[in-house]
Amino acid sequence: METTWTLSAICEHYIRRRIFNADSENLYWTSARRLEQYIKERGLTLQQVDEELLLDWRSLLLQQVSRVTINTYLQHLRALFAHAERYGLLASNPMRSVTRVPVLQKGPKTLDPGAFDTAIEYLRSPDRRMEPAWFWIVVLYTLRLIGMRARQAIELRWEDLDFEKRLIRLRAEGSKTRREWQIPMMEELKDHLEDLRARTRTVTTLRKEMQVLNVTLFHSRYKGEEMTREQLSGALKRLSAHIGVKISSHRIRHTVGTQMGNVSAPNIIAIKNLLGHTDVRTTAIYIAIEVETMRAELCRAYHDAEGK
User: Fold this and answer.
1) In which element (H, E) is residue 220 found?
2) Terminal CA-CA length for the chain
3) How far apart are the C-alpha atoms of 94 and 34, rounded to whole Å?
4) How far is 157 from 212, CA to CA, in rounded Å?
């Protein structure tokens, strides 16, 4: 008897044959279930899906979610449909002709001016409502002085820190590009991490494979053996609510890249290597040329062409 494949079954078939991190795998499932729900609501099967239905779905999504989110769905669904066609799970691939939606190219979202200092001042104030405040100060400085992603912060282990050479190893497990690389440990960060190490030793036997930023060791509110991304993002959201300014690991990372890109004669390779980009075009969004620099270059080109 011929199997009637569902999108969820195709997603499982696809993921089984590849190795993804948890975040990537979740994006495939989210995309598949979103379209599957739409198909089910119309009383159809996957085999009845054609290009017109997919275009209708895309139009509906434009009223519900961001264009970036739509393109994320389309990207992952395109891979699933191509896989299904390749393995003979579907007779055709109606997703092939469904294009991405145009997205306005905006600059990266960064921290508002003074937001970082405001957050630190709040955590040091007697009126703060976040504990352990000293721990969250260490977290903020770690994110601010490295520019790493939340997942990389969670994956950081004590054996990744070389206090003598002042180097930090960012693990492949926490990398979006599945790579491992080293970055410098600034002196200001070294002081905070040494303080965290000393405090960790007062509550447990420190082992090299232990998580560096582990709030569960210092406050009963946080459950589990290690801090999770949800606990980290939740804490930053609460901090944002307390100070009235958005603070997130993503915004802090973009701020690091933007500030490095706004210096005179920025070193794009250094920024690329620090942030762990594989393509320099990704890094280029952080490079801002001042208007006066553009004016000078425009004038120079004009005068050279006119022989003036």
Assistant:
1) none
2) 82
3) 17
4) 5
Whole-angstrom Cα distance, residue 139 to residue 125? 17
3-state helix, strand, coil in the chain (%, to 5): 60, 5, 35
Write the CA distances from 17 to 25, 85, 134, integer angstroms. Answer: 12, 15, 45
Question: 152: which 2 tokens?
Answer: 């990389």
Written as six digits, the tokens of 204 are: 């447990």
Can you name the residues that pair with 208 across neighbouring β-strands? none
**SS3 of 169, please?**
strand
Mean pLDDT in consecutive groups of 10 residues from the start of the chain, 308 residues: 83 94 91 96 95 96 94 97 96 95 83 95 96 97 94 95 94 74 93 97 97 97 95 97 96 91 83 87 77 74 72
Q: Where are the domains of the chain?
A: 7-97, 115-262
CA triplet 186, 153, 279: central angle to 5 degrees?
80
Q: SS3 for 88?
A: coil
CA distance linking residue 66 with residue 171, whole number of Å:
31
Rg of the chain (C-alpha set): 24
Topology annotation, domain 7-97? DNA polymerase; domain 1 (1.10.150)
Which is the CATH superfamily of the domain at 115-262?
Intergrase catalytic core (1.10.443.10)
Q: Which amino acid is at 31?
A: S
pLDDT of res. 109: 87
Structure tokens at 122: 């709040």
Count Cβ atoms within 10 A of the Cβ of residue 55 and give its class: 0-12 exposed, 13-18 middle, 19 or more buried.
Answer: middle
Taking the CB of residue 174, how many other CB atoms lie within 10 A of it?
21
Single-letter amino acid code for the residue at 287: I
